[in-house]
Structures are given as C-alpha cells and as structure tokens.
Design brief:
alpha/beta, 222 residues, 6 strands, binds 3-methylbut-3-enyl trihydrogen diphosphate, binds magnesium ion, 7 helices
Length: 222
Amino acid sequence: MLPSHLAIIMDGNGRWANRLGRPRWMGHARGARTVRDVVEHCARLGIPNLSLYAFSSDNWKRPREEVGFLFELFASHLDTQIDTLVRHSIRLSMFGRRDRLPATLVAAMEAAEARTAGGTRLHLRVAIDYSSRAAIEQAFTQAPQDPSAVHALLPAVDLLVRTGGERRLSDFLLWECAYAELAFLDVAFPDLTTDHLDAVFADYGRRDRRFGAVPTPVAETA
Ligand code: IPE
Ligand code: IPE
Ligand code: MG
C-alpha cells in the first residue's frame, strides 16, 4: 500500500551543515543529491505523484546570499537532471509564484516543464515561492468567475513526510493535507535514505485511513 500522492517538506539542510561545521549552502547542495535519490526511488516504486517543498514564500526572509544560492542550485539541478527525467518519463512542474523569481530561473523552469510534459510515470511537482494560504486565497478569489479554480489546487495528499525534526506544516499544502497521514522524521534531509522512506511507507501501509467512517472491521460479530 503506497501513497498515490506523497508530499515531502525537505527540511534540516542548514542544521545538517552546521553540525559538520560547514556553511548552510553545503547542506542545500547535499540536499539536492537526496532529491535525486528520492525521485528515482519513488519512480521505481510506482508512486504517481510527488510534491516537494523547495522554497517557501517565507524563505525570502533569509539572507540574500542564501536565497541566491538556492535559486542557482535549482537552475543547475534542472539543467543536469532534465535528460534523466525525460528518459524515465517523469513529468516535472513547478507551483508557487513565478513573478518574483529571477527571469533565468523561470525560463529554465518553463523549458523543463515543456520538455517533460509527456512524462507519464511520475508527476514531480516542486514548490518554489509557495505559500499554501496564498494559493487558497487566490483560488477562492478566482472562484466566482472560475469555479474550477478551487479544484485547480493540487490533488489530496495521502502521505506527508517532513524531515529535520520539526513537527509543523510551515504553510505547505494545508488544504490538500486535510486527510493526509503525517510522518515526522528526526533525520535531516541530506541524510534521508531510501531505507528511511521504505520504513515510512511500511508504517503508512499499516494505518487505517477512515476518513470519518467507522474502523474497518477485523471480523464481523453479529
Ligand atoms: C530546508 O532546509 C531547505 C529550505 C528551506 C530551502 P533549511 O534550510 O530550512 O534547514 P534548517 O531547517 O535551517 O536546518
Ligand atoms: C519549510 O522549512 C520550507 C521548506 C522546506 C522549503 P522552513 O525551514 O522554512 O520552515 P520553518 O521556518 O522551520 O517553519
Ligand atoms: Mg528549516
């Protein structure tokens, strides 16, 4: 029993680096390698939808150098991974605001979305300059003219994983996580392995998702 929509809050990069006496950007760089492994693993397992939180609208509060490093990392990662995504039939899309991002990054994102548009194996969604409250507000502002705007919010999340030890959502997919199973891992994102993920999936498979109904009966007692 695997989730059909897995969402991951990729947290703990900065503290991972600090623990090693390294600058925070090294944690982000190492985290990018973990992204590659996670995507590959999900594609191999047949999980159809994966949403990753890469940059929140509140992350603009960080030092300008760190923000700049992250955007360069996203652009270079897109550049190096695009062929692999196409080869593995992975469709990539970004969600969040685009109007405040560097034009070069937006161009790279759009090119990657266009090149991977035919991918059918896994839909990889990456949140950049994303705020769930802003997305919900926007959907409801549009709704009077366009009722489908609310449904244009992402599909329901089955399983939300957050690495890095914090137990909060930090404005990620609030609407979509209405009935999500939650898993909070103390491991920092750069240290996340496919074994950690498999353990989370095994635990997810044992959960009884009731959606408000009565528990699934073990055996009927008349
Ligand atoms: C998550 O790691 C990556 C981004 C928010 C871009 P952090 O950078 O938040 O790392 P910590 O939480 O400070 O360790
Ligand atoms: C959430 O992590 C954003 C991403 C992982 C991209 P933060 O590190 O920004 O969240 P807070 O500040 O701990 O809530
Ligand atoms: Mg953090």
